[in-house]
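This part of the workshop introduces the protein records we will be handling. To make this concrete, we reproduce a full record directly below:
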Amino acid sequence: MSRQTPTFLWLTGHVRNVGDSMLRRPLADLYRGVGPIRVWSGAPASGYAAGLRISEDESAPSFRAWAWEFTIAALRGRPTFAFNAGEFGVTKAYFFGLVALAPALILARAKGSRIIWAGAGVKNRRKYFMWPFDALAKAAADLRWRDVTSTPLMGRGRTMPDWGFGIGPGGESAPALDAVDPTSRHKIAVSLRGDRREPSEEWLDAVDRLARRLDREIVCIVQVQDDDALMRRVADRLGAELVGWGDGNHWAQEQRVREAYSRSVLALSDRLHGLVIAATEGAIPLGWCEATTVKVTNHFEVIGAVDVGPGDSSVVELIDTLDDARVDELSAASTARVREARARVDAVREELAAAELR
């Protein structure tokens, strides 16, 4: 049994960031499984849309066209509306877009449509501009946040792991890895943000010592186009393999990124979804970088991985504590947490799909 009324999904993201399309893809896959979908991606027929794995027939050519289709669907039936996953901050596009949709959303809700806001994280509240989003959160039949700080900020909602934990190795819907043999992995992955201060020589020396201590080679990985220049410099400094930015096709780049992480015993990154992808490919995710923010800690705390963030410790000292025994311990713990996170995401998927078919 499947629905005939389309589900309308708002799935915009950063067109130069593979993590943004990756984390939203499970929502498109979920609702495609119960009926037709209509997606506003913000960048139709782009490399970002390729990362969502949506077809041309599923993608709306413009926000206006998508909003009009939703309005017509709300007049005729009870379409489900799923608001964006990922990091949420008040922008003009979000604010005015949601205000424009408000009449159709009110009508749809009055007729029994489900409003879903699942897998998002609220960055901060902006005075005078939060009212459309507070109203959306209040109207949502299912409201779930991917971090430990959004519920207090919004005053309602449950937590769930990031949607990225619902993806298996290779970026497909394969199950999470049952076990990882750290000795079979011969790389240490490094992926750093290009929009923050460059890593110090002290940190780079610690990474170099780690590679020699563990007898591994370093691979520098780019999942965001804006990081490419920095990672080329880091790869040159460390004498490392480089997986650089490709032609902008997110799906193709994600495959390259995942393949590199699948060869890595651990990943050092200040990018949240670099760590999420690494973890689902069996690498130990470690945010032990000088530019890592509390965002990493707040998201990994949801799956019980409080050691991913550096906390108040020196990142150099943390890296220097890693030896083979500690790597084995962290690998086993990470694999277990990823399996549990996957089970929790699968439970959310099943619950949302079942609600559509009732």
Q: What stands out?
A: Residues 324-357 form the longest helix (34 residues). The mean pLDDT is 97.
